[in-house]
From TrEMBL:
Fe(2+) binds at H191, E289. HAMAP family: Ferrochelatase. Its EC number is 4.99.1.9. It comes from Streptomyces inhibens. GO terms for molecular function: ferrochelatase activity; metal ion binding. It is an enzyme of class 4 (lyase). This is Coproporphyrin III ferrochelatase. Belongs to the ferrochelatase family. Involved in coproporphyrin-dependent heme b biosynthesis. Catalyzes the insertion of ferrous iron into coproporphyrin III to form Fe-coproporphyrin III. Gene3D superfamilies: 3.40.50.1400. CDD domains: Ferrochelatase_C, Ferrochelatase_N. Pfam families: Ferrochelatase (PF00762). Transmembrane segments: none annotated.
Length: 384
């Protein structure tokens, strides 16, 4: 087998995602899965689910994951990479534990995992690792072999993730009226998280204090700079930009990352900006947070203000992203075999780590998390 297409020691890839409802009857049970353990009343979940009901109770995320699954399989086949690709979700079918059970029953014992979250944070990294630990413990309790799972590194700055977003911003600028285009502002958006969670995102060396945002904010800012620089090089125009946030939830008294996209649109309109491109760099695909919070809520706010806005595309199943996943997989496989492959990354930050160190994106209450330096097996105690 050619070295550049050798996936050993891995015998399968798992696409691990958040999941979403696929009909009205799914919405409240899905939200119960998402909020399990928080004691939120069912009636409150029905209220929260109104965003989904506006779209027939269907989140776009599962359909987009199917498209990405097809794109990965197509890319692997075209490049002679003989590796099966499976798909499992955290919060809806196909559930992670069910998928891992199938993989084990199919004979797979060394599994690489791609999470559909590109950046460092508790909810975007460690929580997926906790879900993996729970699933492995469930398999062990059933008497099944427990595979080794390795999560692929963060890919926020991989060219195959960034370049489709650059093209998306360029296409959005081209959609604006000529008279507004050169003065357009770019609002790079991502999911808001509590400032306490942002401050402890990434490795302990990345952690900050007083809401500065740790690795989560630093990684987004780095990607935003790369995209803005590429747009300037392509168009000759230096568009002003800012990293802003969306999709805040939780108790009002808990500080979350700001400014909110709608507040930002009001501020930019008041400053006389002629148009805004909303670029959702924090999302791999069109989650409900993109379809509702940007395409519905923020777009309505812009219309109310009389401010032209265009929302640029997420990466989704772009063939360049599928190729990036292949690159990440083969990079990790080569590293596991003792080689030192080139690690592609754009911007000022280095390529991400392979193994999350102790203290990386910690949970409020420590729990076992697989695929990290603190993992000691499916029944290990949580680190103290």
């Amino acid at each position: 087998m050619p070295e550049q297409c050798d996936p050993r020691p891995y015998d399968a890839l798992l696409l691990l995602s958040f999941g979403g409802p696929e009909g009205p009857d799914d919405v409240v049970p899905f939200l119960e899965n998402v909020t399990r353990g928080r004691g939120i009343p069912r009636e409150r979940l029905k209220e929260v689910g109104q965003h989904y009901f506006l779209f027939g109770g269907v989140s776009p995320i599962n359909a987009q994951n199917r498209e990405l699954l097809d794109a990965l399989r197509k890319d692997f086949a075209e490049h002679g990479l003989d590796l099966p690709v499976y798909w499992g979700n955290r919060n809806w079918a196909p559930y992670l534990t069910d998928t891992l059970r199938t993989m084990v029953q199919d004979g797979h014992r060394r599994i690489a995992v791609l999470a559909t979250s590109a950046y460092a944070s508790y909810s975007g990294c460690r929580q997926y690792r906790e879900n993996l630990a729970d699933a492995l413990a469930a398999l062990q309790a059933e008497g099944l072999p427990v595979p080794q799972v390795d999560k692929l590194r963060h890919y926020f700055n991989h060219p195959g993730f960034v370049r489709p977003m650059i093209d998306g911003v360029l296409a959005s600028l081209a959609e604006l009226p000529q008279e507004a285009r050169d003065g357009a502002h770019i609002a790079f958006t991502t999911h808001s998280i509590p400032t306490a969670a942002a401050d402890t995102s990434g490795t302990p060396a990345d952690h900050t204090q007083d809401g500065e945002g740790g690795a989560y904010v630093a990684q987004h800012l780095d990607v935003a700079r790369v995209i803005a620089d590429a747009v300037r090089a392509e168009t000759g125009v230096d568009h002003p930009w800012r990293l802003v946030y969306q999709s805040r939830s939780g108790a009002p008294h808990i500080p979350w990352l700001e400014p909110d996209i709608c507040d930002h649109l009001e501020e930019r309109h008041a400053a006389g900006v002629p148009a805004v491109v909303m670029a959702p760099i924090g999302f791999v695909s069109d989650h409900m947070e993109v379809k509702y919070d940007l395409d519905t809520e923020a777009t309505a706010k812009a219309a109310e203000l009389g401010l032209p806005v265009v929302r640029s595309a997420t990466v989704g199943a772009d063939p360049r992203f599928a190729a990036a996943v292949r690159d990440l997989l083969l990079e990790r496989a080569a590293t596991e075999r003792g080689l030192a492959p080139e690690r592609c990354a754009l911007g000022a930050l280095a390529a991400g780590h392979d193994l999350c160190p102790v203290g990386c994106c910690p949970a409020r209450a420590p729990r076992p998390a697989a695929a990290g330096a603190d993992w000691r097996g499916p029944v290990a105690e949580a680190p103290v």
